[in-house]
Write a structure and sequence with these properties.
It is a single chain. This protein has helices spanning about 1-20, 20-25, 185-190, 205-210, 220-230, 255-265, 275-280, 290-295, 300-305, 320-334, and strands at about 65-70, 80-85, 95, 100-105, 110-115, 125-140, 140-150, 155-160, 165-170, 175-185, 195, 200, 210-215, 220. The protein has about 325 residues and is an alpha+beta fold.
Length: about 325
């Protein structure tokens, strides 16, 4: 009798696993390979050697050669804040390509600095700068590196092997929060920053830059501003699409949700991304029709995977509570 029950139990388990094979595959361990992409530059040991900031480094005041970039929709990284900058070689410009993307000249430096305000309700109480990531283009190849800031907030040193550091702050609603923030390894950076098996920038697309910003106490279109300072080629801004800020409640639920997926998921989940993710048959790019995204056939899976902390695959240690609620509302509306 006992043997019969044991056999039935094993048979039942087999049936359950077989019928839920998609969920079973989600639980498999996925190892990030050594991408071994070609490199064309050697990164300096000290971030200060790039002369990105002037004055006190902790003030994050860009030097005259670096220009601020602001995105309409941003990547979620454990509720951190980010400063994005670009520097171009003298006499060069970013160019608009026919597909609406940006061609950056060789010698371009893109920076992204991650930090936390000690209290999101009062920025005057100071901040904790964690890391600055660089992307440098040389010989038509993008190179990536991460620099970790010291406790004195005076400099940052090159680190290719990643790091875990404890971060605490007070959120906008007064809640004390903390996490073991994960600085990615060089290879982890390559996982997301690849397209057609080559390294590529993610955030600064023309449609994500097509927004109103404040420069010198004036509100103006960011693309037109970049053109006026001579670092972006001339074209009619009305030709460029826009992507909404997914945190903006006045935008439609469809636009906000698609913008969230585009910025937080599409760099991997598209036919030209990391092959492991591309094989999942999702295409979360903003321009992809809803019918072709894969959302309609697996809408519960999209949200459940995020709620279990399985996605994003790397780059977060906390659940994006607001993002999950947004996608939950979106998928339930379909």
């Amino acid at each position: 009798m006992t043997k019969s029950l044991s056999f039935l139990a094993v048979l039942l388990l087999f049936i359950i696993v077989a019928c839920n094979s998609d969920n079973f595959r989600d639980e498999e361990y996925v190892e990030i390979p050594d991408f071994n992409f070609p490199k064309s530059t050697k990164f300096k040991v000290n971030l200060s050697d790039y002369k990105i900031f002037e004055g006190l480094p902790a003030d994050l005041l860009p030097s005259k050669d670096f220009h601020l970039l602001e995105l309409s929709s941003t990547l979620f990284t454990d509720y951190s804040h980010k400063q994005r900058l670009v520097k171009l070689p003298v006499g060069t410009k970013m160019k608009k390509l026919n597909d609406g993307s940006i061609e950056f000249p060789n010698g371009t430096i893109l920076t992204k600095t991650f930090f936390y305000y000690n209290d999101d309700r009062d920025h005057s109480l100071g901040k904790q700068i964690i890391e600055t990531r660089l992307e440098i283009k040389e010989n038509d190849i993008w190179n990536v590196a991460t620099y970790i800031w010291n406790k004195q907030q005076t400099n940052a040193l090159l680190e290719t092997n990643g790091l875990e550091t404890r971060i605490s702050w007070v959120s906008e609603n007064g809640t004390k929060r903390s996490t073991n923030y994960q600085v990615p390894t060089e290879n982890q950076c390559m996982t997301c920053h690849q397209s057609k098996t080559k390294i590529a920038p993610i955030g600064p697309t023309l449609r994500n830059l097509n927004r109103i910003v404040n420069r010198n106490n004036s509100n103006l279109n960011q693309i037109e501003h970049l053109q006026s300072v001579g670092i972006l080629s001339e074209f009619d801004v009305s030709q460029i699409d826009k992507i909404v800020d997914y945190k903006n409640p006045e935008a439609s639920l469809m636009e906000r949700s698609r913008a969230y997926l585009d910025m937080n998921c599409a760099h991997c989940h598209n036919p030209e991304g990391w092959e492991v993710s591309a094989q999942r048959r999702f295409d979360f790019r903003y321009e992809t029709s809803l019918e072709q995204t894969g959302i309609l056939r697996k809408k519960e899976k999209v949200v459940n995977t995020m709620m279990r902390g399985k996605m994003p695959f790397i780059g977060t240690t906390m659940l994006d509570e607001e993002g999950i609620e947004l996608l939950k509302e979106f998928t339930e509306s379909l």
